[in-house]
Design a protein that fits this description.
Elements (H helix, E strand, L loop, with lengths): L1 H16 L4 H13 L1 H24 L1 H5 L2 H27 L15 H10 L4 H14 L7 H32 L4 H34 L4
């Protein structure tokens, strides 16, 4: 049973880490400009926060459900961060002799940068809340410490593997472009721009659609 819940946590986390998002694209850019070690430190910080969030949500589901206003503020902060990352990437691409994103390559230790960026990213909370609810309903996940801890370890490993795809992909892109990081910065800036547009769409139109669906019909 524990191997089963570990496998589900790993598999769901790995697949959830593959779509383009703020954290995995940031890890990719750090790998491209600063190297593998800073990128893995960033990934370690972000996945640590994810594991803490999941653990808290497992024992405080009712509290999590009621924090809509907090999540709304975190969504705005995340949107601003993504827009800042996009702008910094474009500035680095357009500035002669500059190859690094000033936000991701700042003086902040990469581990703590990963912690802080993951802490204000609310996307992972409803994602894991939904999946945990499904696993509870299927009796795959049970309200026991051993199940929770095994589930969390699987999630952490799955996220690490998923982020590794982007980290090594960032280095591969640099090598294939003959270290032309300005081109890579244009590409990553474009990815962050698209990510910001998706985030804004979810914030404005996703909430509107949800409120419309919740209105009682005549």
């Amino acid at each position: 049973m524990l191997l089963r819940v570990f496998s589900f946590g790993l598999f769901i986390s790995f697949l959830g880490s593959l779509p383009l998002g703020t954290l995995n694209v940031a890890a990719m850019q750090i790998a491209a400009t600063d190297g593998l070690r800073p990128a893995f430190l960033f990934a370690a910080g972000s996945l640590l926060v994810e594991m803490v969030y999941v653990r808290l949500s497992l024992v405080a589901m009712d509290w999590v459900r009621k924090q809509e206003k907090l999540f709304r503020w975190l969504e705005w902060i995340t949107l601003l961060i993504i827009m800042g990352l996009a702008a910094a990437s474009f500035v680095a691409a357009a500035t002669p002799g500059e190859t690094k994103n000033v936000i991701l390559s700042s003086t902040i230790h990469r581990f703590w940068l990963g912690v802080s960026m993951s802490a204000v990213n609310p996307v992972q909370i409803p994602f894991w809340f939904g999946w945990s609810t499904v696993l509870f309903s299927k009796n795959i996940l049970q309200p026991k410490e051993s199940f929770y801890n095994t589930y969390i370890v699987g999630i952490g490993l799955g996220t690490l593997i998923g982020n590794s795809v982007f980290i090594f992909g960032g280095r591969l892109m640099v090598d294939s472009m003959n270290a032309n990081q300005n081109v890579l910065n244009w590409i990553i800036g474009g990815i962050f721009t698209v990510t910001a547009m998706i985030q804004a769409y979810r914030m404005f139109f996703g909430k509107k659609k949800k409120s419309t669906e919740e209105q009682p019909s005549d």
